[in-house]
């Protein structure tokens, strides 16, 4: 007679079956509380300082109120939204914000990619010095930078108009020119953002295994093909991240420069969404309209961010 | 199809010479295996041939043309990286097609080649996957496939089969051997695996610490190792190597060590310290060898006496560990079954299986019999050139 081996049944399994309770279910009943306690302080602060004002902004957007605590809040329904959407100021600010974002994409994405790729040729210490020079402007506080640039651009003896004047170029008082002021602000903020962009792109490139480029070059690809078909695709998560940062934060980064150098003028030519928001709320004392505008911006930027985050997730290759 | 000539090639890293003045000629159609311990400079040498690493010194010629300064894309080579280097953002199919796409091969031809290569490596079902969705072995096969999709002048492969399971490795090994026979292309192949080296190579380069220890056919490497290093590195279990003395007794050259005695060739040799080498599979139980000696009178053989320490049964054969003096020697065979630990035992090996190396330099010593007229005076042990 043939006999086949019979594996002994695991004892533990038999036992727990007999008891009729699966061990996993018993464990699941007790939710560990400690981790939540650790994050609680942060959550409370976030709730008080970010989410409560957000909700209040949303509520305010349905009232008319001039920010005086003694004045009553008058419900006006959707009136604030109608007036914000139909205001010429908002349209100007929207167009300007678009111009700012487009221009900053050049300073924070396009130029940094070019600079980081070129600086790969620079080796050793020279590279560190070179990157430091580009990065330092990012560390200068906007107020200090604004002061310096105002002197540099001053039409009474500022360095830039003087030098350009020697070449026969007369830029006049740029910060007071309706067509020139926005470009001056773009240049100043861009100069600050460039270093940040270069830093992020350099880190992204350093994270790409050089073997990919090596393999491609053995496969017969030239520098341009490698850049287009290997390096840039592998860099795309970094690029999307920079685009996201630029779109979401450029209005904030520009705000101090606008406030110090032009106050949105001349004739609203340099204002942007955030500055407009500030003006409606704290210069016109129209809390309701400011709330409506704030709510609209919040929704628009959220949608943009959501789209870009999804895109960046799809572009991640988990290089290993 | 190409002949690769390497002249005095050197790579000096910070305070460390990874490749040291290597001279090597790889003939057209050769399958050259670079063999050596980890860190001996195999990858570094291969990367210099590929043009990924600029040599500190020396030249590389392909088909007589100096390519030392040529960028890798102009060298018309294909390479399998030790790290695979599969493009992470491209599917397997696109990875395989990449070298063809770069060369602007027509689409139809591209698809045909990709499917051909995928079929020969068993990758058909993986074509749409991204590298991160593959196992290590699958990635490695894609890396091999990406090299094979083209017809370059030479294939460079850096441990291309190291991550495959035994069965797949054997199959892929045979696949590559067949491909080599079919294309008669030049291969430079890095491996740790001696079986791969012995079975696939037409020539083997044994490297140690950036220097070539020996360059020769698998047979030469195995049966006439040029140095103690090669003797100890090639073969499993490795060759028995024992320090001893060469001398002569009564007109016969002898080699002796504790528990070892060999009567070698007629002649006279100066006394010198040597390393005596004999492979485990060439050591036999002594009785029939002793019989042969007494009956046929063939004098010369090496005999070893020691105490059995351990016997390992590998199924197809057994490995015997013998304590001889203060060294442990190994013997391979299938007839050690009756022996016990502690048994006193004599083993012997025929003269042509005995290797002698200079103790100081590690170089192989070759016996050159002198012309018969001067038997006593001039016989000497010559160092192999
Ligand atoms: N970029 C580098 N800088 C400094 N030293 C290096 C560099 N690359 C390799 N080395 C050193 O050079 C020696 C040879 O390295 P190599 O990678 O060629 O070894 P290998 O023979 O391929 O080893 P393995 O079999 O482990 O792959 C090693 O000692 C290594 O540490
Ligand atoms: Mg290596």
Commentary on this structure:
The complex is a heterodimer of chains A (320) and B (385). With 320 residues, chain A is an all-alpha fold. Chain A folds into 2 domains: 9-60, no CATH class; 80-315, MetI-like (MetI-like fold, Orthogonal Bundle). Chain A has helices spanning 11-19, 23-28, 34-60, 79-85, 88-119, 124-139, 142-153, 159-166, 181-206, 210-218, 223-262, 273-283, 287-315; strands at 63-64, 74-75. In chain A, strands 1-2 form a two-stranded antiparallel sheet. In chain A, helix 3 packs across helix 13 (287-315), helix 5 (88-119) packs across helix 9 and helix 5 packs across helix 11. Chain A starts with 10 loop residues before the first helix and ends in a 5-residue tail after the last helix. Chain B has 2 domains: 4-233, P-loop containing nucleotide triphosphate hydrolases (Rossmann fold); 240-383, Nucleic acid-binding proteins (OB fold (Dihydrolipoamide Acetyltransferase, E2P)), CATH 2.40.50. Chain B contains 9 helices and 22 strands. In chain B, strand 16 (301-313) and strand 17 (318-324) form a beta hairpin. Chain B is elongated. The relative contact order of chain B is 0.11. Mean pLDDT of chain B is 88; it is low at 288-299 and 373-380. Chain A binds chain B through residues 209, 211-212, 214-222, 225, 229-230, 233-234, 317-320, and chain B through 50-52, 71-73, 75-79, 81, 83, 85, 87-89, 98-99, 102-103, 130, 132, 146, 150. The structure holds adenosine-5'-triphosphate (ATP) and magnesium ion (MG). The site of adenosine-5'-triphosphate (ATP) has 13 residues of chain B, from strand 2 and helix 1.
What descriptors fit this protein?
heterodimer, A: 320 residues, mainly alpha, MetI-like fold, 2 domains, two-stranded antiparallel sheet, 13 helices, 1% strand, flat, B: 385 residues, alpha+beta, Rossmann fold, OB fold (Dihydrolipoamide Acetyltransferase, E2P), 12-stranded antiparallel sheet, 6-stranded mixed sheet, 9 helices, 22 strands, elongated, binds adenosine-5'-triphosphate, binds magnesium ion
């Amino acid at each position: 007679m043939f006999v086949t081996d019979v594996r002994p049944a695991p004892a533990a399994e038999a036992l727990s079956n007999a008891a009729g309770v699966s061990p996993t279910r018993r464990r699941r009943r007790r939710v560990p509380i400690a981790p939540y306690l650790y994050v609680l302080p942060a959550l409370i602060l976030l709730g008080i300082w970010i989410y409560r004002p957000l909700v209040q902004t949303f509520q305010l957007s349905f009232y008319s109120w001039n920010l005086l605590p003694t004045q009553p809040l008058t419900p006006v329904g959707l009136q604030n939204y109608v007036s914000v959407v139909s205001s010429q100021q908002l349209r100007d600010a929207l167009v300007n914000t678009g111009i700012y974002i487009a221009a900053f994409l050049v300073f924070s994405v396009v130029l940094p990619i070019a600079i980081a790729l070129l600086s790969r040729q620079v080796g050793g210490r020279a590279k560190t010095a070179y990157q430091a020079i580009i990065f330092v402007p990012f560390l200068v506080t906007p107020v200090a930078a604004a002061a310096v640039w105002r002197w540099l651009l001053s039409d009474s003896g500022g360095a830039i108009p003087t030098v350009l004047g020697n070449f026969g170029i007369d830029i006049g008082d740029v910060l007071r020119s309706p067509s020139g002021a926005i470009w001056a602000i773009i240049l100043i903020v861009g100069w600050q953002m460039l270093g940040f962009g270069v830093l992020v792109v350099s880190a992204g490139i350093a994270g790409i295994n050089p073997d990919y480029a090596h393999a491609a070059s053995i496969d017969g690809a030239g520098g341009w093909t490698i850049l287009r078909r290997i390096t840039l695709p592998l860099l795309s998560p970094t690029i999307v991240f920079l685009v996201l940062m630029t779109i979401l934060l450029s209005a904030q980064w520009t705000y101090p420069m606008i406030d110090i150098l032009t106050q949105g003028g001349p004739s609203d030519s340099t204002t942007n969404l955030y500055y407009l928001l500030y003006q409606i709320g704290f210069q016109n004392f129209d809390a309701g309209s400011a709330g409506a505008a704030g709510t609209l911006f919040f929704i628009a930027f959220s949608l943009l961010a959501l789209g870009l985050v999804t895109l960046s997730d799809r572009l991640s290759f988990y290089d290993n | 199809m190409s002949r690769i000539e390497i002249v005095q090639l050197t790579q000096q890293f910070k305070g460390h010479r990874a490749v040291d003045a290597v001279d090597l000629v790889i003939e057209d159609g050769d399958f050259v295996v670079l063999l050596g311990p980890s860190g001996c400079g195999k990858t570094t040498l291969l990367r210099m041939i590929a043009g990924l690493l600029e040599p500190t010194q020396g030249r590389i010629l392909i088909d007589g043309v100096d390519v030392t300064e040529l960028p890798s894309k102009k060298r018309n080579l294909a390479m399998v990286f030790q790290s695979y280097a599969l493009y992470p953002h491209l599917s397997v199919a696109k990875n395989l097609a990449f070298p063809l796409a770069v060369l602007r091969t027509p689409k139809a031809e591209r698809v045909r080649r990709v499917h051909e290569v995928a079929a020969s490596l068993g990758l058909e079902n993986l074509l749409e996957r991204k590298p991160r969705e593959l196992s290590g072995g699958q990635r490695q096969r894609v890396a091999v496939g990406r090299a094979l999709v083209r017809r370059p002048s030479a294939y460079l492969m850096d441990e291309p089969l190291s991550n495959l399971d035994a069965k797949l490795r054997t199959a892929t090994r045979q696949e590559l051997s067949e491909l080599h026979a079919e294309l008669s292309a030049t291969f430079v192949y890095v491996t740790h695996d001696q079986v791969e080296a012995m079975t696939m190579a037409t020539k083997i380069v044994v490297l140690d610490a950036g220097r070539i220890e020996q360059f020769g056919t698998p047979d030469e490497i195995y049966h006439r190792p040029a140095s103690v290093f090669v003797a100890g590195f090639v073969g499993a279990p490795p060759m028995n190597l024992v320090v001893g003395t060469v001398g002569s007794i009564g007109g016969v050259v002898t080699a002796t060590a504790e528990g070892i005695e060999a009567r070698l060739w007629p002649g006279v040799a100066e006394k010198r310290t040597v390393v005596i080498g004999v492979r485990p599979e060439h050591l036999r139980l002594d009785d029939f060898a002793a019989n042969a000696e007494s009956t046929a009178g063939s004098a010369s053989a090496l005999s070893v006496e020691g105490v059995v320490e351990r016997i390992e049964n590998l199924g197809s054969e057994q490995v015997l560990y013998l304590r001889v003096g203060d060294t442990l020697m190994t013997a391979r065979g299938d007839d050690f079954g009756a022996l016990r630990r502690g048994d006193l035992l004599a083993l012997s090996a025929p003269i042509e299986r005995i290797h002698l190396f200079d103790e100081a330099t590690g170089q192989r010593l070759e016996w050159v019999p002198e012309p018969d007229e001067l038997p006593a005076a001039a016989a000497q042990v010559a160092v192999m050139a």
